Amino acid sequence: MRKLILRIIGCTLLASQSLVGLSADGPASPFDNLTPGVWTLIGPGDADQVTSLNVTNDGTILLGSDIGGIYQSIDQGDTWFPSNDSLNNYDITTAIIISPTNPNTRFVGTRGGFYKSRDGGKSWQNKRAGLPAELAHKLSGSIGGIAVDPQNPDTVYLGLGYRQSSDGTTTVKKLKWSRYIYLSSDQGESWHPVLAFPHPSKVTQLLASTVHENIIYAATDTGVYRGNSKTKLWQRILNQPCLGILEFSERPMRLLAACGDAGILESTSSGQQWTTRNTGLKFKPHSSGPDRYSIIARAKPGAALFAINSTWGSAGGVYRSTDDTATWHRITDHLPESWLRTSRRINALAFDPTDAKLVYLGSSRYVYRSRDGGDSWSQLISRQTGSGWTHTGINIFGHTRDIEVNPTNPDQIFIATADHGIVVSNDRASSWNTIGEEPRYGQSSADLQFSSGKDALLYSASFTWSNKSCLSVSANGGDSWRALCDSLNPTHQIQKILIHPSNPDQIVLGTNQGIYASSNAGNTWQTNTTALPNEKVTALALHPSDPHTMYAGAKSGLYKSVDAGRHWLAIPFLSNVPVTAITLLRGHPETILVGSATSRSGPAALYRSINGGKSWYPVLKKLHKYVSGIVQLPSDDSTLYMATNDHNYHDSSAGSGMFISSDRGRNWSAHNTGLAVRRAWNISVADTYPDLVFLSSNGSGAYVLKHPSQTTAGVPPG
Q1: What domain range is 687 assigned to?
Q2: pLDDT digit string (tens) for 54-71?
Q3: Is the CB of residue 643 less than 8 Å from the CB of residue 695?
Q4: CB neighbourhood size of 430 (10 A)
């Protein structure tokens, strides 16, 4: 009874903290009840990508993602909350494993190592004793499989590799794999290697037998192996790359293996002989990769079998067999949608241990639930309101690039994403929809900016993953767009847009090949790259009181123009420091803050000048991996917020987080309360909400924060 009461209380708190309430007049804005100093998720609701699922004995769902870390749900997926405290790598590569002797003890593999929790996932510790040492600028070897010995729960097995649904990025594919399985006799506190494979092998699943004592199976890219933890001897029982394996407790010699583009294989002789079981499975390779049958599972002995083809192609999805592999039928052809289109790429599957009909799926974009064993599904990332969609507490997305408020309509807010287009809220973040028409290359937008004046125009720097870029403009809130890039080189990727506040016809673009400028609202362009040839310009800033002075940040340093961008001069002190963010303080224009990226010249840092750039000193050092934005609070000249960003290219890649300064940037303190991840692409403010700060996170969507010293945030003037 006590556990039930606690779960009800938890659901109530989650609903009040992360969900948009409904009133008689429609959805209430999250701006109405912000807790000062706490970042609040505003949406739009996404799950790209779910990499693993598990369900505990009390029904708690444990979800792993590729860039957002771990989420939990205690109400069958209706609401979600993050579980990432002290997790320093957000790419979850295995299911979250529960210790059979203590439900509060949990294990998980990440792209950056093995983690253990002793408090039910509230906090995590990276346990590396005996495993490859952590690397500062590379990956030491990600975790592909974890298994607990059912006869001796103190014994845990670990294999280096990657998740079943993906080979990973180029960074992962270049890793050198191991010939060893690692064994721990103290629940993951320390490890020692056991020789298992004749050749280096990437592990995608470890399975400790519940039928045969001391037996463990490993699915790898060099085959399926059977090992004996007592004799330390291993044998390859299937000379075929495989991703998943299933053992039958009622038939001890029977095994099923999910083997990529070979489909499902069966052995009834403990692996001595194998037979293909593919009747009804679909195969159609996709341009970005082959068919990838990766998971084979069932809820309990005698229950239906499920197989996942985790691919972008048309054969992707979940297949079910109710006649013991004689035939398969795809059960994910009609999955429900919200504001996002569905994807055939299903990555994860889990069953409720107390209800075999209660099934959960994780995909690229969605989490699904079925209460009837897969006959019908509901999506769990967002709920429909009368005006759009609102999140359920979960937003896993690595490319939320910018948030901008319409200066002439404070109720209208835009989010730019890379890969999911531009989404808009017309009711102060209460609900979200896709825009009416996409700009050219509109599936991805690197930056959004409004011009000033009563007829504010919206500009988008859109791009494709094949490196084409375009600036487009909308005069009607994204319903239609006009391209302004016909005279621009489409391979010069636009990084930042700068529009002069007192002269909206003056636009400057920072690209990966220097600077473009326009004096007629983007209708024609001239290049100004004399001082910035072939430079990637990632930051632009205007002097707050001198319309002719502006700054540009590039890989080679900080540049200044005093003639409206026609000529640029390098600022010597920051030469060869890759500048990624710039702000000049309103009311104190001689005070300049500049953020940098980690490079050969040193770690990322935040620099400050109080004399217009003549001299500089670092105020924050050793940041990870770059400063992505600095803003000054509209209501208080002394208050600044700063964001940092990082990428999953090295072991500890959770980033340095967000910071606040109340003394114009002299001193800073961390400010991450409420965030699921500590990384962001951008940070922004809006004059119409003078006490609010908006965050475009790298891994968990869009956030808003009410400055803690104020009491009127969220109410636009007038």
Answers
A1: 528-712
A2: 999 999 999 999 999 999
A3: yes
A4: 27
